[in-house]
Amino acid sequence: MRDTRKSSRRQFLEELAQGSLAAGAFPYVLTRRSSGKRVVLEREPQPDRSRKLAANDTIRLGVIGTGIIGFYNINAALTVPGVELAAVCDLYDGRLTRAREVFGEGIAATRDYREVLARDDIDVVLVATPDHWHDVISIDAMKAGKAVYCEKPMVQEVAEGHRVIQAEKQYRAKFQVGSQGVSSIVMKKAQDLYRAGEIGDLILVEAVNDRHSSLGAWQYSIPPDASPETVDFDTFLGDTPKVSFDPVRFFRWRNYRAYGTGIAGDLFVHLFSWLHWVIGSDGPTRIYGSGGLRYWKDGRDVPDVLTCVVNYPQAATHPPFNLQIRVNFVAGGAEPNSLTLVGTEGALVFEGDSLTLSRTPFPARPGYGGYDSLSTFPKEVQDEFVRRYQLEYYDVPRDINEPGGIVYTPPEGYDDRADHWANLIAAVRDGKPIVEDATYGLKAAGPSLAANVSHFENRVVAWDPQKLQYA
User: Which of 252, 278, 409, 410 has the greatest number of C-beta atoms within 10 Å?
Assistant: First the structure.
């Protein structure tokens, strides 16, 4: 008999790979080709998927929130040998139906997340809900004895983050925040290059993450059958102000401060997570965010353009430096999206899934001529200056810079989200360390939330990276 569950999931994955779904979900990614030597990074050896695991090695997954990222996470988790999907929860009935179409009719489906947590056969819970539910469900899941993979940002408010950290400690839970880049082999290479001093002393970090489409601006599709009968809107609202049924609020919740965290919580948080991982930073001390609602005046109450200037203090792993972030949801003619670490001797540039190391050693000779005051000196003084210069720098080698750089890329088909899940599963099975626990999650979420406070209150926000609170 044909296995329709495998067939449906295979079709779903093929649609992602071919772009019919992936391109629709992420049409805003802008990249450019880099010139120079290319190196394909090697992934660490992975467990043999064909090897049959013992029954007690099977990890059963319960999913709370089966929207876009929920589906991506399910597929990533199921690449880890021994992981099985047991139950799904969502407040829109259509997503429960779709989950069974793709992953099999045998999985349990419910609107009530507490039913998932009450099951003894579930080991790990994915929390992929709107942001305002992250802390409540994560804490309930840890209290129920489950390991948790919570999507970013970990929380909607800083105080919630401390409660999640406390629960993680109290229940000795395995807790992973879903900013998957920290598990990427590309990020690990960047970390190695940074620690080796390949770019010298860090001076400035620049990040651009622009979009130019309706979907990129969170104008997600709304199903024609959305109604009070098919959507549990009251539960969705939670502790937020009560409003009448509104499918736009439900399916495009990122557009509203009551349920999401805007650009900062969706995108800045990734940048903070990745940067802190590469350079080993605890975080910044001053954040200033400024933006506005320039185009998408569709009822949303969060900006569609947000910039941020961030100050990092001296630390054991880095000198003081500045970070500049820009996100524009109406980026006509935009430059490629990138994250660039600029040092005194070179730069590390992330674009798409690649990392480019460019080396530009600071000139050992100061030089003269060109746009210089030398030409304003009397001829005799110019000659004397040149004579002394040549004597002083006689044995200093001339600077020779090679064009291009080294471009590091992952192997074809690589998925850092799968590695992030593998890290959590290894922690559950073997007690291996979590790469992005609750404390790490707040180190990224805190500055992101501070950027929102700064924007809406029009002030610089001071942050304490040790106490993880507003200073």
Answer: 278
Tell me the CATH number at 287.
3.30.360.10
What DSSP character marks residue 132? G
> For residues 30 and 210, is the Cβ–Cβ distance under 8 A?
yes
Strand ranges (E), 23-98 = 37-40, 59-64, 83-89
Whether residues 125 and 9 fall in one domain: yes
CB 404 within 8 A of CB 37: yes
The verdict on 17 and 135 lying in the same domain is yes
Q: State the burial class of residue 18 (Cβ atoms within 10 Å of its Cβ: 0-12, 13-18, 19+).
A: exposed
| Tokens matching residue 346 | 């070179």
The answer to whether residue 87 is domain-embedded is yes
Tell me, what amino acid is at 249?
A: R
Q: What is the CATH number of the domain that holds 87?
A: 3.40.50.720
- What percentage of the chain has pLDDT greater than the value 70? 89
Please report the pLDDT score of residue 394 as a whole number: 87
Q: Give the whole-angstrom CA distance, residue 90 versus residue 63.
A: 9
pLDDT tens column, 57-109: 899 999 999 999 999 999 999 999 999 999 999 999 999 999 999 999 999 99
Question: By C-alpha distance, which of 154, 88, 79 is closest to 115?
Answer: 88
Paired tokens of 206 = 């620049």
Same domain, 26 and 133: yes
Residue 202, pLDDT > 50, answer: yes
